[in-house]
Task: inverse folding
């Protein structure tokens, strides 16, 4: 059975990397994104204790929150996206997902209301659990750290694609105020759930997903180009990274956002915390000239505004 490649981010985080290390990393990135759209990321600079803490806080929230606590955090109907979502409230391909979650998004700049969409889906503020008491502060610190990893990675992707001229900086420019999303997800064993899978097959919407998951094996599955589902089992200290729809759009399909799903048949309660490093809300994403050249010269798909794409997806996400 094939496994996903492992890429070390170290050469992109050191001030004076050896040119060959740097080039090897960019080549590995390009190859992983072309072949799988998925890879493991090591040496990303976030200490293992922080990753462990994020998972422990998440587990403790799901373990201790009462139904009333969860209700207080519940997202606002009908389309509100920030906050708690009950078991089975998320749907993928029209089927209920057997997980519960709390979703957080970048908050709007108070001083510039002109940037906010009229649509209420992403309005308001994030709804933070009161328990564990340190969850909000620690998760906010984590967001700052993981945002840096996302931006280093996306800049490296631009270099791996060989972007030049007026496009050289396009990926960085369009993600410098990343409209990030973070989900705390809890997966009960599937046998305890009435129907469905833990998370139905889907591609992610944006740029790059940095997935942190507990040690549960045989839950996350990735569809290979040859049509085989393989497990992306956790490697301690590493992220499972995958590229989203906006990278596919930018690269004119050279790099594809890959289908994945979660089928958690183990007997434990699994937790994961995917962090979605996304384009800016108002970023216009269109195929890059360099990528059109590399894919036969014909542009696939129209320009999309990331925020519109996101809202369109969110509206189909709830039961
Ligand atoms: O929990 C996981 O392993 C993956 C979750 C996922 O694919 C998502 O939230 O987009
Ligand atoms: Fe996903």
Result:
């Amino acid at each position: 059975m094939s496994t996903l490649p492992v890429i070390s981010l170290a050469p992109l985080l050191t001030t004076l990397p050896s040119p060959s290390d740097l080039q090897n990393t960019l080549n590995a990135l390009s190859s992983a994104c072309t072949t799988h759209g998925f890879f493991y990321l090591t040496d990303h600079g976030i200490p293992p204790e922080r990753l462990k803490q994020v998972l422990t806080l998440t587990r403790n929230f799901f373990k201790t929150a009462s139904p009333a606590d969860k209700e207080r955090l519940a997202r606002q109907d009908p389309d509100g996206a920030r906050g708690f979502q009950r078991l089975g409230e998320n749907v993928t391909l029209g089927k209920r997902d057997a997980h519960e979650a709390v979703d957080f998004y970048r908050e709007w700049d108070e001083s510039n209301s002109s940037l906010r969409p009229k649509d209420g889906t992403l309005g308001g503020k994030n709804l933070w659990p009161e328990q564990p008491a340190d969850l909000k502060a620690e998760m906010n610190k984590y967001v700052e750290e993981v945002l840096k990893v996302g931006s280093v990675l996306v800049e490296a992707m631009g270099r791996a694609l060989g972007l030049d001229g007026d496009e050289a900086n396009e990926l960085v420019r369009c993600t410098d105020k990343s409209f990030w999303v973070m989900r705390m997800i809890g997966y009960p064993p599937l046998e305890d759930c009435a129907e469905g899978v833990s998370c139905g097959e889907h591609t992610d919407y944006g740029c790059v997903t940095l997935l942190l998951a507990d040690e549960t094996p045989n839950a996350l599955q990735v569809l290979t180009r040859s049509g085989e589902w393989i497990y992306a089992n956790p490697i301690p200290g590493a992220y499972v990274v995958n590229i989203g729809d906006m990278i596919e759009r930018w690269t004119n399909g050279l790099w594809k956002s890959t289908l994945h799903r979660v089928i958690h048949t183990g007997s434990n309660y699994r937790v994961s915390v995917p962090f979605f490093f996304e384009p800016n809300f108002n970023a216009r994403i269109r195929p890059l000239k360099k990528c059109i050249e590399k894919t036969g010269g014909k542009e696939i798909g129209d320009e999309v505004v990331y925020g519109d794409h996101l809202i369109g997806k969110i509206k189909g996400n709830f039961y």
Summary: The chain has a mean pLDDT of 95.
